[in-house]
Design a protein that fits this description.
heterodimer, A: alpha/beta, Rossmann fold, six-stranded mixed β-sheet, four-stranded antiparallel β-sheet, 10 helices, B: mainly alpha, MetI-like fold, 9 helices, 2 strands, about 0% strand, flat
Chain lengths: ~250, ~250
């Protein structure tokens, strides 16, 4: 045993040689990725390169065909793993918000802690109201998702995930469906979370934002991690020609 | 007030021969009223049971196990492809005799009453339609909404009960109302096995009073009022379930 490796804390998320196919098409072809506690990781890359699929595999929404994913020591794809325990650790925010349209903002946030964690209502409601304030939506407690703008809905979705007190938040292109002017209000919220030390994994097309908040950037293409590096190095000195071509196109 | 009304109907009979006996004769009025109550009771029981059967059936149709799905589909097909009266006869005359006890005189006595058979029959009949209706509603709920619930830690059943079913109910509500209106009207089929509901007691009354045309009017209007009342109730529920931004 290497003593230095033993004293280092293991990564919160550890993906090893992850493989995933849809109808015979391999979309993840052996992906390795580590996320340390408190780290903000951005995954960027062309559409269809498997970024979203990787996120969905990390919280067990999609099964993997090979390799392994561990979250805080839990083997995500071991059938014996307690899925509730896993999903308490991992919050996920989707491109299309996916709020529960028949419930008010407050109820959307309170539902899972009440039904899944079975926590006392008063405590859950206090936490939900604090989260609504945190995402700057005071006064919208009793509004329905259909009455909110996309940016507001996405902030409710973030609050809903946070209400479960996850250890890591996965953001799957959360600004891709938003108007340009509402993108920033969502990014502000994520930036604050990152600053508070929340572990975040973001799939994003917002390069400026990735450069600003990410500790580490992964670039995927055709189901592979082509290159990864600390954010500053990644954007200033990309090595791989595919990364260089991609950045030249989007920056 | 009631007495004045009764006198007016009795007088109508004297003057014109139009014999609306259920409105002035206390015995026939009570008999008819009991029939209406029984219809309402039968309909209420069937509505609750058939909605539950529909919710469970639709859940089982999404089951991982193929044999469970096949079983539900077989039930739906069997029920939808046979007339409700044939089903009622099958249960009452086909199964009923096997579920009987013998009394002190050695005679067979059915253990399950005609009323119970009718409730079972109409509940499962409408339950099959409700299963299909809910299934269509569930299919219209975006898969991502269910995934969001699962990613928050809900089990599949939890996501179904708290997220998918409430949304599916709203989507399929108009079709569900339709099924339930048909159910209320279907209760008159219980006449065929002598359950004393509206039509059956009316038959008793017109046999005694020989006022067939009048009683036909009374029966028709009774159902119009019953179903209108139910529709008003459903419209209220639909309004209460309505949510901004959800198209229904």
């Amino acid at each position: 045993m290497n003593p230095s490796a033993a004293t280092r804390r293991p990564p919160l998320i550890r993906c090893r040689e992850v493989r995933k196919s849809f109808n015979g098409v391999e979309v993840l072809r052996g992906v390795c990725l580590d996320v340390a506690r408190g780290e903000v990781v951005c995954i960027i890359g062309p559409s269809g390169s498997g970024k979203s699929t990787l996120l969905r595999c990390i919280n067990g929404l999609a099964r993997i065909d090979g390799g392994s994913i561990h979250v805080d020591g839990l083997d995500v794809h071991d059938p014996a793993t307690d899925r509730l325990a896993l999903r308490r650790k991992v919050g996920m925010v989707f491109q299309q918000y996916n709020l529960f349209p028949h419930k008010t903002v407050l109820k959307n946030i309170m539902m899972a802690p009440l039904h899944v964690l079975r926590e006392p209502r008063a405590e859950v409601e206090a936490r939900a109201r604090a989260l609504i304030a945190k995402v700057r939506l005071q006064g919208k407690e009793d509004a329905y998702p259909g009455e909110l703008s996309g940016g507001q809905q996405q902030r409710v979705a973030i609050a809903r995930s946070l209400a479960m007190r996850p250890e890591v938040m996965l953001f799957d292109e959360v600004t891709a469906a938003l108007d340009p002017e509402t993108v920033s209000e969502v990014l502000v919220t994520i930036r604050e979370l990152a600053a508070e030390g929340m572990t975040c994994v973001l799939v994003t097309h917002e390069m400026g934002f990735a450069r600003e908040v990410a500790d580490h950037v992964y670039f995927t293409d055709a189901g592979l991690i082509v290159e990864h590096a600390p954010a500053a190095d990644f954007f200033n000195r990309p090595h791989d020609p595919r990364t260089q071509a991609f950045l030249a196109k989007v920056l | 007030m009631m007495e004045a009304l009764a006198r007016w109907f009795a007088d109508l009979h004297e003057r014109t021969g139009i014999n609306l006996v259920v409105f002035y004769d206390p015995f026939d009025a009570a008999r008819f009223f009991r029939g209406v109550l029984l219809t309402v009771e039968m309909a209420a029981l069937c509505i609750v049971a058939s909605v539950l059967i529909g919710a469970v059936g639709a859940w089982l149709q999404g089951s991982r196990w193929r044999c469970v799905r096949a079983l539900v589909n077989a039930y739906v097909e069997l029920v939808r492809n046979t007339p409700s009266m044939i089903q009622l006869y099958f249960l009452f005359f086909g199964l009923g005799p096997y579920i009987a006890a013998h009394n002190a005189h050695g005679q067979a006595e059915p253990l399950i009453s005609g009323f119970t058979w009718a409730v079972v029959c109409f509940s499962f009949y409408t339950g099959a339609f409700n299963t299909e209706t809910f299934r269509a509603g569930i299919d219209a709920v975006p898969r991502q909404t269910e995934e969001a619930a699962e990613s928050l830690g809900y089990t599949r059943l939890g996501a179904y009960l708290y997220v998918v079913l409430p949304l599916a109910l709203r989507i399929s509500f108009p079709a569900l109302s339709n099924n339930l209106v048909n159910l209320i009207k279907m209760t008159s089929v219980a006449y065929a096995i002598a359950v004393p509901e509206i039509l059956y007691v009316s038959n008793q009354i017109w046999s005694d009073a020989l006022n067939v045309p009048e009683m036909m009017n009374v029966v028709l209007v009774s159902y119009v009022l019953l179903v209108s009342g139910f529709n008003a109730l459903m419209a209220r529920i639909e309004r209460r379930l309505r949510v901004p931004g959800l198209g229904c």
